[in-house]
Amino acid sequence: MKKLGLLILTLACAIFCPLACADAMPPQQLKVQYDEKYRPSGSTVLKGGISQVQELPVGMYGMWQVKGTLLETNNYDKFAQNSSDIWVLRKDGEFVTLINPQNGANATITVTEVVDNTATFTRGVKSGNMREAETVTLTLLGDGDTFSGTDVIMSQTMINGVIVSDVARYRINGVKISGQTIFRPRSAKTMSW
Questions:
Q1: How many domains does the chain have?
Q2: Pairing with 172, which of 18, 61, 147, 189 sits 20 to 30 Å away (CA)?
């Protein structure tokens, strides 16, 4: 139970703090600056930054059959033990989108990390007194026609002035149904009729 509590706290800080500050941050990069006159002599300057990775590995784009198995949660009544969805990962210009044609869900995602054939992306939704954030980590396997990974879903709802947090972690596996969906904006020069 302590591990789940620590997971909830860690996810709340990692997921919701960036979501709450997203309106205040420039879309591509936030740099930390330090005024030299306030630096104690002999100390080093702290440098840091936040940047967004815009691209998934090319093989991740396309339509996938995705099955999930619940690994842990703090609310078994809210989250299904097993899930089965269709995901379409597509790039349209500068935006990466996750679409679920089964239920009509459509969300722009933020790709936060890519290392070889492994990518992590997030999405967040705010609606009334509810916030939901999802962090997905996928690794392409074999020839790129399957993936495995995790999907962590965290929701917070304000009920009578109290924030109720629910979190679930799923193991997910995907099988590619169809190929890449990358759309590049056309310029007037490249269009032909």
A1: 1
A2: 18
Higher local confidence (pLDDT), 182 or 128: 128
CATH number of the domain where residue 138 is located: 2.40.128.120
* Bridge pairing between strands 49-51 and 118-127: unpaired
Residue 110 lies in a domain: yes
Range of the domain at 26: 2-33+49-181
pLDDT average, residue stretch 55-74: 95
Distance CA 19, CA 23 (A): 8
Rounded to the nearest 5 percent, the helix, strand and coil shares of the chain are 15, 55, 30
Band (170; pLDDT cuts 50, 70, 90): very high
d(C-alpha 138, C-alpha 193), whole Å: 40
In a domain, 188, yes or no: no
The alpha-carbon radius of gyration of the chain (Å, integer) is: 20
Residue 149 lies in a domain: yes
**91-99 long-range Cβ contacts below 8 angstroms, 24+ apart:** 91/55, 91/56, 91/61, 91/181, 91/182, 91/183, 92/183, 93/183, 93/184, 93/185, 94/54, 96/54, 96/55, 96/56, 96/121, 98/123
Report the predicted TM-score, pTM, of the whole model to 2 decimal places. Answer: 0.67
Q: Over 90: is that where the pLDDT of 167 sits?
A: yes
> In 10 A of CB 121, how many CB atoms?
21
